């Protein structure tokens, strides 16, 4: 069913559409809450250990070296949650900026496409890291970076869940929502750059080369993804 710009109240008076009144939004937020609680109840210690190892730059044989098969499956669920929450955040921001989207496309379709694009982006980044590591770096350093990147993806899901919950139920303005997303994005890239310095500073020659390499792999793909989503929203707005 399409997202109406106006929904009828019990007395017949039309009221503006609100994200917090959307059943799909509520169901997804509840689902992510129970998913987070489920994962934390079973793999909380391992997840905390991953965070400590990331910040302290501890060398480990593998991110899953002391994890059971259940821990691995639980952590993969967090990747799914992160993709869903990115889709939710984009849905709220784009839905506010492009109100016609809410009338022309159902909620589940918009969130699903945004989340699918995010999942494809994460998978593509894994492949890019493997390819570049195969060319420029040794296997061990490449593996440790992919593990660090995956740890950031895990924790991003929790941060986005709290952010989207706050945005939806406190009816924040678009400008504030964008600022929250920009802060999370900046903080994520700062952590990624910190890990790059720890892992690659001795492998890549020159700080300028490291910065250019980081921008080419981390910043430019995000900008291209954003432009692609804007073009997709424009297409939907014009044609539907």
TrEMBL record:
Transmembrane found in the keyword field: yes
Organism, scientific name: Candidatus Bacteroides pullicola
Top-level taxonomic group: Bacteria
Protein name, entry field: DUF4271 domain-containing protein
Keyword Cell membrane in annotation: no
Spans traversing the lipid bilayer: 15-40, 75-101, 113-137, 149-170, 176-197, 204-226
Pfam families: DUF4271
Keyword line: Membrane, Transmembrane, Transmembrane helix
């Amino acid at each position: 069913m399409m997202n109406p710009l106006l929904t009828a109240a019990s007395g017949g008076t039309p009221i503006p559409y609100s994200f917090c009144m959307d059943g799909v939004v509520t169901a997804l937020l509840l689902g992510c809450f129970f998913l987070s609680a489920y994962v934390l109840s079973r793999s909380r210690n391992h997840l905390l250990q991953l965070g400590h190892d990331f910040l302290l730059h501890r060398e480990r044989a593998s991110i899953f070296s002391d994890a059971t098969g259940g821990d691995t499956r639980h952590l993969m669920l967090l990747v799914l949650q992160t993709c869903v929450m990115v889709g939710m955040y984009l849905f709220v921001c784009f839905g506010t900026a492009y109100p016609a989207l809410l009338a022309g496309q159902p909620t589940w379709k918009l969130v699903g496409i945004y989340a699918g694009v995010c999942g494809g982006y994460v998978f593509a980044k894994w492949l890019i890291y493997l390819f570049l590591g195969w060319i420029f770096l040794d296997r061990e350093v490449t593996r440790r970076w992919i593990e660090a990147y995956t740890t950031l993806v895990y924790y991003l899901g929790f941060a986005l869940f709290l952010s989207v919950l706050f945005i939806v139920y406190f009816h924040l303005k678009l400008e504030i929502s964008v600022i929250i997303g920009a802060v999370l994005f900046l903080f994520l890239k700062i952590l990624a750059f910190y890990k790059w310095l720890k892992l690659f500073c001795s492998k890549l020659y020159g700080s300028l080369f490291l910065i250019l390499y980081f921008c080419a792999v981390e910043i430019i793909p995000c900008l291209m993804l954003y432009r692609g989503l804007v073009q997709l929203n424009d297409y939907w707005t014009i044609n539907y």
